[in-house]
Amino acid sequence: MAYVIGVDVGGTFTDAVLDDGNGSIVAAKTPSTPPDYSQGVMDVIVQLAENLGEPVEVMLGKTHHIAHGTTSSLNALVMGNVPDVGFLTTVGHRDSIYIMNVEGRYLGSAPHELQNVMGQTKTHLIPKSQAFEITERVDHAGNVVIELDEQSVRNSVEDVLGQDIRSIAVSLLWSFRNPVHELRVRDIIHEIDPDVFVALSHEVSPRIREFSRSSTTIMSAQIGPGLRDYLGELESRLADAGLRGPLLVMQSNGGAIAAAEAPATAISTIGSVLTGGVVGAVNLGQQLGHKNIISTDVGGTTFLVGLVVDGEPVRTSQTIINHHPINVPTLEVHAIGSGGGAIAWIDRGGNLQVGPRSAQSVPGPACYGAGGVEPTNTDANLVLGILPETGLVGGRKKLDVEASREAIRSHIAEPLGLSVEDAAAAIYAIQNAQTGDLLRKTVVEAGHDPRDFVLYAFGGAGPAYCAGYAAEVDIREVVVPLGPVASGFSAFGLAASDVILAQELSDPGQMPVSPSATQKHFEDLEKRLSEALDRQGLSFKEILYVREMDLRYTAQLAEVSVTVPSGGLTEADMVDAMNEFERKYASLYGEGTGFSAAGIQSITLRVQATGVLPFDPHMPELEKASDSDPRDAQVATRRVCLDAQIGFVETPIYDYRKLRADHVIAGPAVIEVPTTTVVVPPKMSGTVDRLGNLHIITRD
C-alpha cells in the first residue's frame, strides 16, 4: 500500500509520522522554523526519509497524501498578526461588529476577569475606516426587498482598495437565506481586481446572529490570504521534492480538507494542530478498548486537553478568540501556555509563575544554547536529571546544563533565596499543579468523574509530567503512547484522519418543524457536501453523513445539538429530536433546569460528511518479553529529583527501544525515548503493552 504522512507544525517542534500500510510506522522531529514554517515541514520530511532509509523523492513518490496541521492561522489571530481587511455589509448595519451584541466585553473571559468590571474592554477586529455599507436588503424569508445597488458596491470596493487592502469580508443581512447579493458582490469585486481575496458569510458561516456571522467572516478573511500563500508555496515545494498525492489540511472538526479548498473557509483550520492528538486518541482507544479518554498534549508552547466520551470526541459549535465568536464546528480542546518552553518568572508579589509566555524554538530554553537566557520547564527538567545531558531528539539537540543552572539561579533561585535545585523542583511542581487545574476544569466542570477516564499523555514534554498532573485529579491510569510515534502522537492522529466536511444552515422555527421542509434542507446540504467531496481529489472507502439540529428553549440562548436520522423524516422524528434535546439539556445543565412550557425552537441544521479513506494506521506490535523484569533495558542510573521533599535519588534509566511487551518498570524510573522522556514516580509502575504503550498506575 501507499504511504500516509501526518505533519504537525508546533510553535517549537515539527513532528512527522509515516504509516506504510503494512503495520510499520516511522517518526521524525525537527525544530520549527518561524516565520517560514514551510521550511520546517521540508526539514522534517527529509529527516523522515532518512529514518525510513529511502531518498526523499522515492518516499514522496509512494505517498498517497500528506495530512498537515498548523498553528500559523491560530497564532496569527491570537497575536493580531493579520493583514488589513475590508468589510462590506448592508446599509444601516455597519456598527454591529463594534456594538458586538453587547458580548464583546465578556465572551471567553474567566470568572475572575468577569468580576473586574472596570478592567473589561472591547477589542475591535478592524477600524471603522475599513468598514463600508452597501444598499441592498433581503428579508428573513429570503425575499429580496431592496435590489443590490451595484454602484454603491463599486464605490465601496474602490475605497477599500484605495487603502491598499487585498482581502474583503462580505456579510449581508439574511444572506444565509438567500445569497444572491453576496455572490454578485464577489463578482463585482473580481471584475475590479481578480486577485483580491473575498470571504462571503453565507459560505463561511451560514448561521443566524449577525455579529457572530460577521466576526467569523472577517477573521476568515484575515487569515485566508496568508493560508493561501503558505499552502501554495508548500504544495509547490513538496511537488518539486516528488510528492504526487494531495496535501490535506486538518480542520478544527477533526477531519482534513484539500489544501486548495482550505483558504475559502480558512477559519475552519484554526484548531487544526490542536485536534490531531484527539483524533489519534480515538484511533488508539479503539485498539486498546478505551472509550472514555482524556487526551493531553504538552508540546513546547502549550498544554492541550480534549475529551473522548463513549468513543466520540467532544465537539462544540462555537469557539472564542479575543472576545470574538467563531462559528466553526470543532473538537473541544482547552489550552494554556504551559509547555516545555514555558518561561518561569516571579510576579510583583514575589510568587513563582510558569508561563504562559514561551521561549518557543527561537531563542528556545537556555539549555539550547541559541540565545535564550530565561529559565523554562525544559531547563528545570535538565537540572533535576529528568532530561539527559546528552541531549534531545536522539542526541541531535545538545543541551547545556550549566546554562540552565545559570538561568534558574539568576532569575528564580537567588531572588527567592533558594538553591538552584530547589528552584527547579518548584518549577516542576507548579507545572504539574497548573496543568492539573486545567484537567479539573475540563473534566469535572463538564460533569464527568476523572476516575471514569484513562488519561493519554503525549507531546515532547507530556510524558515527563503526566503522572504528576494525573494525580492532581485522582486519575487512576495513564497511557503514554510510545511505540514509534513517541512525542509525535498528534502527527499520528493527522495520519489517521479522514476527510470531514460540514455544511450548515439556520432556519429558525418552532418545534416540531415541518419534517418535509427540514428534509429538503438536509438534502440540499448533503448535495453541497457531495460536490465538495468530489473536489478533494481522493477516492473514499465510504461516505458517511450525520445530520444535526441545534435546538433551544424559546427565548433562551443555550443551544444543544441533537442528531436526527438519515432518509425521509417524519413527525415522530421531530418529536424524538425534542425529547433528545430535553435529555441532553438536563445532562448538561442539571435535572429540572429545562422549561418545556416555553416551547422548543429549531435554530440551525447541520450535516457532517466523512469521506473514509482506505487507510487505518495502527501501532505495530512489540515482541513479547520472556519475563516482566526489564533489566536488559536499563542503560544507566543518574541522580534525579522528582519530589522536592525527597530530593535527588539514584534512579534507573531505561532505553525504551530495548523494552518489550509485558515489561514492568517500578518507579522511580526514567525511560528515555529518542523524542521524549517518561517519568515513573515512586510508588507507581509502568507496564508495556503489546503496542509499546506504557501504562502507568499506582502500586498497591
UniProtKB/TrEMBL annotation:
Coiled coil: none annotated. GO terms for molecular function: 5-oxoprolinase (ATP-hydrolyzing) activity. Residues 213-500 form the Hydantoinase A/oxoprolinase domain. Pfam families: Hydant_A_C (PF19278), Hydant_A_N (PF05378), Hydantoinase_A (PF01968). Residues 5-192 form the Hydantoinase/oxoprolinase N-terminal domain. Residues 518-695 form the Acetophenone carboxylase-like C-terminal domain. One of its GO terms (cellular component) is cytosol. It comes from the Bacteria. GO terms for biological process: glutathione metabolic process. This is Hydantoinase. It comes from Rhodococcus opacus.
